[in-house]
């Protein structure tokens, strides 16, 4: 019995992205590990620590016993406190210690995935994300690893993999959240439509239609009379959806046509990551 076919694409995409992270950080000198990244509050070392910690938890390793300092401005709730423990416990690790642990973690996790025999609909639990199927869990790990790969690439000025298999998975995860962003968070009125026109390596056109009950649905068909049209490129879209763009930069990168107030509310609620 082999890995279920529905999970193999996620495993392949995850493998490519996490190995890309390893290749990016292996040659770094000590000072480069402290570079700031687009991820609020995190350095290069912190992002790699998070990736290591997340995969260790997926492996079933016990969480480190560690008390966080009180001056971490980006730690604002229980979810971020939970995530930060795996990061802060490694903040004094050297570059070689980081690359060695990352490499070992990739080997262990790859072996686990290669030997996975549970069904895709097997339910797993996460203290922060809650209950989900094994396939959903692997999909979200692929999304998370690709997003942080891009954080590292931007910080280290090493662009790449913007249209990789993991990027396609990340795009689909982002698009799934659009109806909630438009209809619920931004409060688009009933019987309205909002169009997202995205260019670049992962070019797409999507419309969120809000029905009479105020529920949003996502379609690939254009709208003849949208209330708002937002036009941008794929890299900017992904950075915006992951909370990596400052508000002043959004205006430079996103063209808005239509209801400016609704567009502003959509962009203010666009980030889907914690």
From TrEMBL:
InterPro entries: DinB/YfiT-like, Maleyloyr_isom, MDMPI_C-term_domain, MDMPI_metal-binding. Keywords: Isomerase, Pyruvate. This is Maleylpyruvate isomerase family mycothiol-dependent enzyme. Signal peptide: none annotated. Pfam families: MDMPI_C, MDMPI_N. It comes from the Bacteria. Residues 168-265 form the MDMPI C-terminal domain. The keyword Isomerase applies. One of its GO terms (molecular function) is metal ion binding. It comes from Streptomyces alkaliphilus. Coiled coil: none annotated. Residues 15-153 form the Mycothiol-dependent maleylpyruvate isomerase metal-binding domain.
């Amino acid at each position: 019995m082999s890995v279920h076919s529905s999970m193999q694409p996620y495993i392949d995409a995850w493998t490519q992205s996490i190995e890309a992270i390893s290749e990016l950080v292996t040659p770094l000198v000590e000072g480069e590990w402290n570079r700031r990244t687009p991820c609020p509050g995190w350095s290069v070392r912190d992002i790699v620590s998070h990736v290591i910690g997340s995969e260790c938890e997926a492996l079933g390793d016990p969480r480190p016993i560690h008390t966080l300092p009180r001056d971490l401005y980006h730690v604002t709730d229980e979810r971020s406190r939970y995530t930060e423990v795996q990061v802060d416990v490694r903040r004094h690790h050297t570059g070689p210690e980081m690359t060695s642990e990352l490499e070992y973690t990739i080997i262990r996790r790859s072996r686990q995935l290669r030997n996975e025999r549970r069904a895709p609909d097997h339910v797993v639990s996460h203290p922060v994300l809650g209950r989900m199927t094994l396939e959903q869990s692997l999909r979200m790990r692929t999304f998370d690893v690709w997003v942080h790969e891009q954080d590292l690439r931007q910080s280290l000025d090493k662009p790449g993999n913007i249209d990789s298999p993991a990027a396609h998975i990340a795009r689909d995860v982002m698009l799934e959240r659009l109806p909630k962003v438009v209809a619920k968070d931004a409060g688009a009125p009933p019987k309205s439509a909002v169009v997202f026109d995205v260019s670049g390596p992962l070019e797409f056109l999507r419309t969120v239609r809000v029905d009479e009950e105020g529920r949003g649905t996502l379609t690939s068909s254009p709208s003849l009379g949208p209330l708002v049209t937002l036009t941008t490129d794929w890299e900017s879209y992904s950075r915006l959806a992951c909370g990596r763009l400052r508000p002043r930069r959004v205006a430079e990168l996103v063209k808005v046509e239509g209801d400016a107030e609704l567009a502003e509310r959509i962009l203010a609620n666009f980030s889907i990551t914690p």
